[in-house]
Amino acid sequence: MAKGTKERILAAALVMFSENGYTGTNIRELTSSLGLVKSSMYKHFRSKEEIWNTLFDELVVYYDEHFGSPEHLPPIPESGEELVALTRKMVEFTVTDEKIIRARKLITIEQFRDERMREFASKYFLSGPADIFTHIFAGMMEKGVIWKEDPAMLAFAYTAPISSLIHQCDRTPQEKEELLAKAEAFSRHFIKNYETKQK
Fold it and tell me: pTM (2 decimals)?
């Protein structure tokens, strides 16, 4: 039961932090939304700051496990079509997973207040995807699937437009399917230019 309550507090905190920011989130309102009194919350967390820190740590782990990190790298695609499929899977995850959507909103709001959130924003929005695709492209080059280039520069060129489409999905969620199609079209255009055509 205690574990369930703690998880409920963190889930509700993510919603409130992502909508109101850290300073705009009130502990009384948070506990009230869960049908708890403040004393019940303090059995699990000593303060709003502790909730914030615990939530931040959980988001980092969740992102690394579900999207990718040096410890959780995807398999190297064997073809351009596999790259397209992998990219679509990653993009679909990041624009449909509620926790990731909330995390992205939270990062956007809090990156200018919290130094750790600023570092996470750089990793989440820029260096993380680029690092993952640097690994992917280096592996594809080794397999002869794509032409040999600088994999880091190729990854930067690949991930930046896709990242911008993901942010656009946050601003205009009603256009999600159209933006997913555009991301896939970009992926196909990219592979058309870099695939070696060797089967």
Answer: 0.85
Whether residue 78 is contained in a domain is answered as yes
Radius of gyration of the chain (CA): 20
pLDDT in tens, 14-35: 999 999 999 999 888 998 888 8
Q: What is the CATH number of the domain that holds 92?
A: 1.10.357
Domain span at residue 91 reads: 67-194
Q: Which residues contact 66 (CB under 8 A, 6 or more apart)?
A: 93, 97, 100
Contacts of 21 by beta carbon, 8 Å cutoff, 6+ apart: 109, 110, 113
Q: What is the pLDDT of residues 96-107, one digit of tens each?
A: 999 999 999 999
- 60 falls within a domain: no
Q: Is residue 95 part of a domain?
A: yes
